[in-house]
Amino acid sequence: LGNIALVYTQKMEVDSAIKYLSKTIDYAKENNVPKMYRKGLFDLGILYLKQDNYIEAFRNFHKVRDELETAKDSMLLMHVYGNYGALYTKLNNFDSALHYYNKAIELDNQLSTVDYRSSNYLNIGELYFRQKADWDTAAYFYRRAVELALPSKYNAIKLKTNINLGNVFSKKIQLDSAIKYYEDALSSPLIN
């Protein structure tokens, strides 16, 4: 059921995605499958977040967080915190967004099996760029994201970082540096 919902999400058929995620959640609750229940709630929260339905996104993330108080699933909790950060970023609440991105990074530091810090650092850089117009701090976090990127995600993080650094130097009116980063982005293997 959850996989069907994800396909509908990719097809941007939101009503069908919600229907199947709701069925997943109901099935998991009725059959006492807590991990499936939490994942269904989380996926529904992400879908609502993408639809800019912040109240429903928050409700679903909050339910997952409450469930995780008794279950030990640090990986999912890390993702919940990262998505709280995204939610608060969209609401232009800098302090709360930064708080939750940092909580996600703290949990990530404790996990030995994954590393999403680069994504969270990229998000923090965006936060400083868009909401504080603090170009130097944004550039620091963009560079930190590249340093920590896993090999499998390196090219995507590097591409985003080069574009973002180009934007930083453009805002700082350091146009030669901006052009360099934009050209570096154009030379990415993901574009060519």
Return the string of H and E elements.
Answer: HHHHHHHHHH
Amino-to-carboxy terminus distance: 37 Å
Residue share in β-strands: under 5%
Radius of gyration: 18 Å
Indicate the structural class: mainly alpha
Low-confidence runs (pLDDT<50, min 5 residues)?
A: none
Backbone shape? elongated
| Total number of beta strands | 0
Fraction of helical residues: over 70%
Average pLDDT, rounded to a whole number, is 91
Largest sheet: none
**Number of helices in the DSSP assignment:** 10
What does this structure look like?
Helices cover 79% and strands 0% of the residues. Helix 5 (74-90) runs parallel beside helix 7 and helix 7 packs parallel to helix 9 (154-171). The protein is built from ten helices and no strands. It has 192 residues and is mainly alpha-helical. It starts with a helix and ends in a 6-residue tail after the last helix.
